[in-house]
Amino acid sequence: MRLNALLLGATALLSLALAAPAPAPIDYAFGDIHNPNLPHLTSATFTPSLSHGMWLVEFFSPYCPHCQQFAPIWQDVLEMQEHLATDSDFHMSRVNCIEQGDLCEAQKVLGYPALRLYADGQMVEQYSGKRTYDDVTAFVVARAADYRKLRASQAPAAAAAPAPAAAAPAAAPAPAPAAAAAAGAAQ
């Protein structure tokens, strides 16, 4: 009798386990180089995106072994430093040079992976350090701090600049002669 009850209980548990819906598949995980949320720039978005703020852009080929080796490092740095977009107006993105060949040619990209730093639309530096998580992170954090300081130093200068003549407040109108005479008589 106990054996029958045990078998019946095991069968019930097994049927419940098989009837339970499977968990939804995970689209991506931390460090997944196929993360659809990784920002990619195109010929149409490159100039408008880079026109404001500081951007570190990776130019890569999906067929390049060095790029494939660097991809998880790049994504880890990007994910860990995402807060810099709001804190420092520092952004990171990628350009697939196979899909965006004209853009990479216009940017004179000669090898992959190439990391270039842009400030307000102008290329200011080519990264030449080691392509390790620690080295790239140190570069990103330092350049974000530099850009934050630059913007802070420009803000007071913009506030202290004299307003254009058209924006100056109008002078108070001169008192009318009758009002001036009345004011003089009251004294």
Notes on the structure:
The protein is of the alpha+beta class and 187 residues long. It has a domain at 45-153: Glutaredoxin (3-Layer(aba) Sandwich), CATH 3.40.30. 47% of the residues lie in helices and 13% in strands. The protein has helices spanning 2-19, 46-50, 65-80, 84-88, 101-106, 133-160, 177-186, and strands spanning 54-60, 90-96, 114-119, 122-126. The protein has a four-stranded mixed sheet with strand order 2-1-3-4. A hairpin with a 2-residue loop joins strand 3 (114-119) and strand 4. The longest helix is centred in the C-terminal third of the chain and has 28 residues, at 133-160.
Summarize the structure.
This protein has 187 residues and is of the alpha+beta class.
Please give the structural blueprint.
Layout: H1 2-19, H2 46-50, E1 54-60, H3 65-80, H4 84-88, E2 90-96, H5 101-106, E3 114-119, E4 122-126, H6 133-160, H7 177-186
Parallel strand pairs: 1-2
Antiparallel strand pairs: 1-3, 3-4
CATH fold-level topology of the domain at 45-153: Glutaredoxin
State the total count of DSSP E strands.
Answer: 4
Strand line-up of the largest beta sheet: 2-1-3-4
The CATH architecture assignment of the domain at 45-153 turns out to be 3-Layer(aba) Sandwich
CATH superfamily of the domain at 45-153, by name, is Glutaredoxin
In CATH, what is the class of the domain at 45-153? Alpha Beta
In terms of per-residue confidence, which ranges show pLDDT below 50 for 5 or more consecutive residues? Answer: 28-32, 166-187
- Helix amount, in percent? 40-55%
Q: What's the N-to-C terminus distance? A: 119 Å
Mean pLDDT: 79
Q: What is the H-and-E element order?
A: HHEHHEHEEHH
The dominant shape is: globular
Tally of individual helices: 7
Radius of gyration: 31 Å
- How would you classify the helix and strand content by structural class? alpha+beta
* Share of residues in strands: 5-15%
The profile of the biggest β sheet is:
4 strands, mixed
